[in-house]
Amino acid sequence: MAYRRRHTVVAAALVITAILANLRPPGNHAIAPFHRSDGSGFVVRDSGVERRMPNSHHESGRSAQVAPSRWRLSEVDFHAPLFALVLGTGLAGVVDAFAFLRYKVFVGIQTGNVVFVGMGLAGHLPAWPSAVASLVAFGLGGLLGAGIRRIPAIGPITPPGMELFAMLVLLVVWGLVDRALGSGRDSLTERTVLTALCAFPIGILGGLIVRTFGVQTATSYQTGTVLRTTQGLADWVFGGGDTAGARRLAMIGLLCLASYAVGGYVGAATQSRPISTFVILWALIVVMIALTLGKKPKGSRTSRR
After folding, report:
1. Cα-atom radius of gyration of the chain, to the nearest Å?
2. Which is nearest to 203 in space by CA: 216, 220, 191, 189?
3. Which class for 181: exposed (0-12), middle (13-18), buried (19 or more C-beta within 10 A)?
4. How sure is the predictor about 186, in pLDDT bands with cuts at 50, 70 and 90?
5. What pLDDT, in 10s, does the model give residues 195-227?
6. Which of 200, 201, 202, 181 is nearest to 190 (CA)?
7. For the whole model, what pTM was predicted?
C-alpha cells in the first residue's frame, strides 16, 4: 500500500513540474541579447536563434517597433530598469534564504524543491510536503501574474505595477500569518501552509522580466542566468560576433548573481528577527511599484538604450 502511494506521489510531482514548465513565458525564462543592425537590415537574436528583418522596419534611423501581444514583451516597464533588476533579484534572494532557514525548503528555486520531493520520497527529507506546496503555489502565482498582465493600465498604474502590488498584499498576509504561527517551528503542517503563502507571491515575481541595456532577465531564474552569463563571457573573451552585446550579457548576468547573493545574505542575517526581513521585503516592493508608475508600453524596441 505504501509502495503504491509513494509512486502516486511521484507521478503527481512530475505532473506539477510539467505544469510549471509550461507556465513560464517562452523566450523570457533567461537572459537574451537584443537585436542588432548589420547594414542590409537587422538581425534579431533570441535564445541563440537569429532572424533577419529588412531595413523597411526602420523608422528615421531607429530600430523597429513591434507591437507586443502582451505587456510583458515591452521594454519600458520601469523608469530605472537596472535598479529595478537589482531590487527584484535581491528580493528573490532574501525570501529564498529566509524560507530555507525557517521552512527547510525554497520558495523561488523550484528546481531545488523538485529534488527535495525526491529526497523525501526516499525517506531523507521529512519536510518534502512543504516542497510540494511550494511548487504548486509558485505555479499558481505565475498563473495569477500572467492574468494580471492582461489587464489594461489604470491611469499611471500599469500591469507590472499591479503585479507588484498583488505581491505586496500577499507578502504582508504571509508575514502576519508567519508571526501568528511563530514560523511553524513545531509543526510541519504550519510550515507547509507558510511555505505556500510565501511561494504564491514569489510565483508572480517569477514571471517578471526586466529589460535593460539590451538584455532581458528573469529576476528569479538564476540557473539560466549562470548559463547565459558564461555564454556572454565566452563570446566576449573569444570574439566572433556581437562582442558589445556579449559584454552586456555577461555584465548584467554577473550583476544579477551578485544581487541574488546579497539578497541571500540579507535573508539569512535577518531571519532571527523576521519582522526585519518582512519590512525589507515590503520596502523593496514599494520602491519597485514606484518605478512602474506612469510607464506605458511602446512596443518591443530593438535598439540599445
Report:
1. 20
2. 220
3. middle
4. confident
5. 999 999 999 988 887 766 656 677 777 888 888
6. 181
7. 0.71
Which residues are CB-contacts of 69 (< 8 A; sequence separation ≥ 6)? Answer: none
DSSP assignment of the chain equals: -HHHHHHHHHHHHHHHHHHHHHHSPTT-SS-EE--EE-SSEEEEEETTEEEEEEGGG-BTTBPPEE--SSGGG-S-S-SSHHHHHHHHHHHHHHHHHHHHHHHSS-SS-HHHHHHHHHHHHTTS-TTHHHHHHHHHHHHHHHHHHHHHTTSPPBTTB-HHHHHHHHHHHHHHHHHHHHHHHGGGTT-HHHHHHHHHHHHHHHHHHHT-EEEETTEEEETT-HHHHHHHHHHHHHHHHH-SS-HHHHHHHHHHHHHHHHHHHHHHHHHHHHTTSHHHHHHHHHHHHHHHHHHHTT-----EE-S--
The position carrying cell 543592425 is: 37
